[in-house]
Amino acid sequence: SSNSDILGGNTVTATQGATIDYNQGSNYNNTTGLFTAPVAGLYHAYATMRVGNNNGLNQASIQKNSNGTGSNVVAFWELTGNSSSKGFGHMSMAGQTKLAVGDTLQLVASSGTISFDGNDNWSVAYIG
Q: What percent of the chain lies above the pLDDT cut of 90?
């Protein structure tokens, strides 16, 4: 819910303004920004965000087990330029992945800046 930019290289956490509206089972740690799978299964993850105040390359990814390479990237988003230079600001990404008990998911600002406001959210849901 914060309008502050989250700089590249950071996991989205409550310390950067993320507000937790729903955390059934307390499997999301708002201090570390990690969601830990309580049971093995298929998980769906999505994020809606906007470009921060950066005219360069902006990237965000949802990563499995704190690994931003290969099949560990559940979803990826990229935009060059900020919202005023592109005529829009909000983007969404989504992906599904199999998780074992104890596997984690996290939303990472990979480069540039991303930002959230009261209309944006990030969520992980057990779907199967």
A: 30
Length of the chain, please?
128
What per-residue confidence (pLDDT) applies to 58?
85
Instruction: Give 3-state DSSP helix, strand, coil % of the chain, rounded to 5.
Output: 10, 50, 40
The residue written with tokens 């991303």 in the block is 114
- For the cut 90, the answer to whether the pLDDT of residue 6 exceeds it is no
> What one-character-per-residue DSSP string does 53-107 give?
S-SSEEEEEEEETTB-SGGGEEEEEEEES-HHHHT--EEEEEEEEEE-TT-EEEE
The two three-digit tokens of residue 104, written as one number: 């984690």
- As a whole number of angstroms, the distance between CA 54 and CA 83 comes to 9
Vertex 85, ends 110 and 17: CA angle to 5°? 45
